[in-house]
From TrEMBL:
PANTHER family: ADENINE PHOSPHORIBOSYLTRANSFERASE, URACIL PHOSPHORIBOSYLTRANSFERASE, CHLOROPLASTIC. Uracil binds at residues 193, 198-200. The keyword Coiled coil does not apply. Its EC number is 2.4.2.9. This is Uracil phosphoribosyltransferase. It comes from Ruminococcus difficilis. It catalyses: UMP + diphosphate = 5-phospho-alpha-D-ribose 1-diphosphate + uracil.
Length: 208
């Protein structure tokens, strides 16, 4: 698996803003979407293109367009939903699948409750999105579920990751490409990322 860590100053700046506990729901949601768009721009740099003929007001020319089946964006519910519109701003024709997983607060193990993916998933470039990669349990299970449905070309985008999560995902799925906004120090005893930003789902949706 290849891991790419984001270096763009705009991404770094925006991640700092969402870490602040005083950042409210409205702003938090908006910035998550902006970060997803900036990270998507980096993660989709290798999308294949094909040449087509277009007629400009001046002459006919051969120019590139994105090739192949439409992209599939797959958020891990709930928090991943906050990143979807950022990717759709770049690729409006992308299909959207959903994977429902929640972490048991005691065991920190992921529990699956939903999976609905676009058709021809085996032919699509898939971008799985979840702002937080903590123990990696949810990410590992989500990618396993996508593979069980036939998905092959998988990229995973997380805004903040713990070293434990990166290692777990690399070990379980060495064939995927991982994009991380910022690598944090470690997990605490409740498997929350330190320094992190708290509970991403609660902060996006304004729940406690
Ligand atoms: C959070 C987060 C990830 C998961 C990461 O979701 O959005 O999906 O935890 O933790 P892990 O790497 O240890 O599995 P959560 O289970 O809190 O659900 P939510 O998005 O519905 O709040
Ligand atoms: N899920 C979150 O939302 N935050 C963490 O720090 C860990 C898991």
């Amino acid at each position: 698996m290849s891991v790419s860590y984001m270096t763009h100053p705009l991404i770094k700046h925006k991640i700092t803003l969402i870490r602040k506990e005083t950042t409210g729901t409205n702003e938090f949601r908006k910035i998550i979407e902006e970060i997803a768009m900036l990270m998507g721009y980096e993660a989709l740099a290798d999308l294949p293109t094909t040449d087509v003929e277009v007629k400009t007001p001046i002459e006919t020319t051969i120019q590139p367009v994105i090739d192949g089946k439409k992209l599939a964006v797959v958020p891990i519910l709930r928090a991943g939903l906050g990143m979807v519109n950022g990717i759709l701003a770049l690729v409006p024709s992308a299909k959207v699948g959903h994977i429902g997983l929640y972490r048991d607060p005691e065991t920190h193990q992921p529990h699956e409750y939903y999976c609905k993916l676009p058709d021809s998933i085996d032919e699509r470039q898939i971008v799985v999105v979840d702002p937080m990669l903590a123990t990696g349990g949810s990410a590992v299970d989500a990618v396993t579920m996508i593979k069980q449905h036939g998905g092959r070309k998988i990229k995973f985008m997380s805004i903040i990751a713990a070293p434990e999560g990166v290692s777990a995902l690399m070990k379980a799925h060495p064939d995927i490409q991982l994009y991380v906004g910022c690598l944090d120090r470690q997990l605490n005893e409740n498997a929350y990322i330190c320094p992190g930003l708290g509970d991403a789902g609660d902060r996006i949706f304004g729940t406690i």
